[in-house]
Amino acid sequence: MNFVFDFGRVLFRWRPETLLRQALPQRVTDEASARHWVGQVFQAYGGDWGDFDRGTVQPPELAQRIAARTGLTPDEVTAVIQAVPGELQPLPDSLALLQRLRAAGHRTFYLSNMPAPYADHLEATHDFVRGFEAGIFSARVGFNKPEPEIYALAQQRFGVPAESLLFFDDHAPNVQAARQAGWQALVFTDAAQAERDLRTAGCWPD
Questions:
Q1: What average pLDDT does the chain have?
Q2: pLDDT for 80-120, tens place per residue?
Q3: 206 in any annotated domain
Q4: Does pTM surpass 0.85?
Q5: Cβ distance 185 to 169 under 8 Å?
Q6: What is the pLDDT of residue 201?
Q7: DSSP-H helix ranges across the chain
Q8: Which tens digits make up the pLDDT trace of 152-172?
Q9: What is the separation of C-alpha 136 from the centre of its chain, rounded to a whole number of angstroms?
Q10: Residue 205 above 90 pLDDT?
Q11: What distance in Å separates the CA atoms of residue 175 and residue 169, rounded to the nearest whole number?
Q12: Domain count, the chain
């Protein structure tokens, strides 16, 4: 079995509400305002932020676009953009799962919606990212999950049959799209649940 990992909320911490509380303390003062600004800034990772993931907009333009749309100042949006790398910290249990799969001889790959500046940061900062056999960051190929093109490109780059890939992603539409591409895929909640799911599927490397 060949395992494919998403990054945000799978291998790396991603708490947008917390990030915005820290980056925009004057705007985000409670749970309701946190939800509001998460929706406004990230747009469910479509819209402006989706273009950032796709690699078609860079941080200065992104800040201007979000500011014009939301009423935040460009400096406020820039503060959010710059805060993201600090939020993306490895999840210890997920990293342990990855290492156990590698130690058992399984090949590991990644497929992540990730803007180019953050992809560069993660590669430069975390050795385990460079330990994957291959991977795709959305901004480097011009497609985002759950678009079918990114799964086809990933399978081609990984060089293995679709049915031999097992994909972990926290977002159900991305999992469904992977299944439609012929992959096996599981919705990732946490490493313990992933292990239980793998055991149930008979894929755990005992």
A1: 96
A2: 999 999 999 999 999 999 999 999 999 999 999 999 999 99
A3: no
A4: yes
A5: yes
A6: 82
A7: 16-23, 31-42, 47-54, 59-70, 74-87, 92-103, 116-125, 127-130, 148-158, 172-180, 191-200
A8: 999 999 999 999 999 999 999
A9: 11
A10: no
A11: 6
A12: 2
The string of pLDDT tens digits covering residues 20-54 is 999 999 999 999 999 999 999 999 999 999 999 99
Q: At what angle do helices 172-180 and 148-158 cross, to 10 degrees?
A: 60
Give me 59's structure tokens: 């941080």
Residue type at position 136:
I
Q: Which two tokens stand for residue 100?
A: 């156990």
> Residue 134 phi/psi, 5° resolution?
-165, 165
- CA distances to 70, 137, 151, 158 from 141, rounded to whole Å, are 28, 7, 11, 14
End position of a domain, from candidates 87, 118, 145: 87
Domain range spanning residue 189? 2-13+89-200
b (16+ CB within 10 A) / e for 121-135: bbeeebeebeebeeb
Residue whose structure tokens are 């430069």: 124
Contact 37, 49 (CB under 8 A): no
| Residues, the chain | 206
